[in-house]
Amino acid sequence: MSSSTPLSLRYLMRAPLQQSESPPLLMLLHGVGSDERDLFGLSSMLNDRFLIISPRAPIALPQGGFGWYPLHFTAHGPVIEVDAALESQKRLNQFLAEVTEAFHVDIRRVYLMGFSQGGIMSLNTLLTDPEKITGTVIMSARLLVELQATWAAPERLEGKPIIVLHGVHDPVLPITYGRAIRDYLQTLPVKLEYHEYPMVHQVSAESLSDVQTWLTAQLDSN
Fold it and tell me: Most buried by CB count within 10 Å: which residue of 54, 133, 137, 202?
């Protein structure tokens, strides 16, 4: 359902099915060319305790849908518009702050879950502003190394739980990107869980099951 609370990005919301004065937050970030309805379709399969918010990325794309920044696929990999990515990161941070205040979110339990470009933004949000994020679900993504200068010092990420999931047959963001995320995060003091699946650029039943298990475990331990 849509919320009547006006915020800076359009969004869909699923209220927590277990009532709480200060619910945990799960924010879903969609991939390029999609919109707020994409990952929101998974909300009925995610833990009942979460307030789920699925925002629409701020940039309308010429080919249809929305994105967090324009990008171009080349023979040497994806090329992005850095200024647009920086601006979207600021807008996402602002939106997260608005949601936290408007819905009285438990600031100790704020999770991001993103697919593809949404996964890239989820991970980058944690790396740039770790005090605001409890943990992240990163699906079929890559490191936004173009913004590495904005990342926080490693010690600020102490103990942050992260799950990374990637398909070994992904033709859009090949498995080398998922493994690069794994290799980098293994240099940080985070709690990393990493999975590879025999899938393409998608969320499979198996990967979603692992996400469900991981998210529930985070709530049960925090």
Answer: 137
